[in-house]
Amino acid sequence: MLRILLPVDGSNNSNKSVSDFIRLLGWYKETPEIHLLNVQPPLHGGVSSFIDRENIKQYHQEEGFKGLQSARDLLDQAGIVYQPHILVGDPAEMIVHCAAEKKCDQIVIGPRGLGGAKGLLMGSVANKLMQLSPLPVLLIK
Q: What is the Cα 120 distance to its own chain's centre?
């Protein structure tokens, strides 16, 4: 079965890419296994000096869930099964890492997100992903 990684950030552009991807699912011979990913930026500075690791982890999970929610709603409405994932780190590097870990065959991404914290799917992230990924990357405008 084909495995696809679908990174999202909750922005309007990201949601449009998910909607467009849903319409493109007919291109595939069979319904692919979809892994939905949100990458949270790490907290910088001395935050860990003031907040314990468990609270930081909970914060990233809550923010990641918010970043996934609109894509989850779109996929749920279309009756498409997916597996959600939340990672913390450099977006392009974490996308490549997750795709390898989940043994994905393709990454489908919008070329520009602009959601919170500068957006997960900014053009620079898509460009970096194109350079780092050994997998085919489908950019949906």
A: 8
Nearest Cα to Cα of residue 40 among 15, 69, 62, 11: 62
The total of other beta-carbon atoms located within 10 Å of residue 6's CB is 25
When divided into structural domains, the chain yields a total of 1
Contact assessment for residue 141 and residue 109, using Cβ atoms and an 8 Å cutoff: no
pTM more than 0.90: no
d(CA 1, CA 29): 10
Its domain, for residue 103, covers: 3-139
Beta bridge partners of 136: none
Query: Backbone dihedral region of 79: left (phi > 0), alpha (psi from -120 to 50 degrees) or beta?
Result: left
Per-residue pLDDT tens over the stretch 104-122: 999 999 876 554 444 444 4
CA distances (Å), 132 to each of 73, 77, 95, in order? 30, 33, 10
Residue count of the chain = 141
